[in-house]
Amino acid sequence: MTRLKDKVSIITGAGQGIGRATARRFADEGAIVIVAEMNAAAADRTVGDVRAAGAAAQSFIGDLSTYAAAEALVEFAIAQFGHLDVLVNNVGGATALKPYHEWDPDDIVAEMNRSILPTLWCCRAALPHMVARKYGRIVNVGADSARNGLWDRAPYNVGKGGVMALTTSIARETAAFGINCNCLSPGFTDTATDRLVERGIRTAQASEYLQRLNQMQMDITPMSRPATSEEQAAAIAFLASDDVGHITGQVLSSSGGMNMQ
Ligand SMILES: NC(=O)c1ccc[n+]([C@@H]2O[C@H](COP(=O)([O-])OP(=O)(O)OC[C@H]3O[C@@H](n4cnc5c(N)ncnc54)[C@H](O)[C@@H]3O)[C@@H](O)[C@H]2O)c1
Fold this sequence. Notes:
By secondary structure, this protein is α/β, with parallel strands linked by helices. It has ten helices and nine strands. The longest helix has 21 residues, at 154-174. The protein is globular. The chain binds nicotinamide-adenine-dinucleotide (NAD).
């Protein structure tokens, strides 16, 4: 399939998990991929995946919780490839799991830095270029937990609820400029990397609690299994392509039916 042929595409947080699977899927669909990451080794690995699939790729290393990095990322894409077609805002992820009354104020700020600010900043940096060019596809990655108040991640849910609100606002303001902005809202996804270990959340002590939390989520998921990263990537590729047509400002749940309309 070549739906994304030659589309210059930024994918944030593409070093692992859903972002890495998305970069691979974009490569298979012919895109030119900019892997935006704060982890240089992970970025290199994904750039290798994309090039091995025969597509062009460059990495951009920076902390996208700052506006300066987001602006530099968009400038980098345009300097490298002349323009920007697609922005996938994938950076995010719960930084802690516990009831809201146990969260420290500093940790709440850290969650905002991870799960809403990179998306706010990258959209703000990319939109002037897309508006001037009268073309753009923005896919923001939300989380279905924001739609049902899933346990023990209130600040994350707030961040992802913000991502959904930003999606509809941008869609309304920019439809006249040839821009489609949608949100892919995953549920529990079986990412290859154990994110919770990486962030220092999972300990032997916490493991049983996390298993119980995941089981509670599966109990309310009709498909009774986590998604794969590849399933999320396929949905992101659709929303990034011209097949998206008349669809804008939508939140597409990809959560095994955990939330239904
Ligand atoms: N995995 C799930 O179960 C799940 C469920 C619902 C929603 N999501 C959402 O999907 C997206 C991807 O999830 P994942 O599990 O694949 O993520 P992950 O934690 O495995 O990977 C995130 C990547 O983003 C990078 N990153 C983090 N902060 C960054 C920053 N400030 N600047 C630049 N790079 C940064 C990390 O280095 C990492 O490579 C996230 O937005 C997450 O909230 C995931």
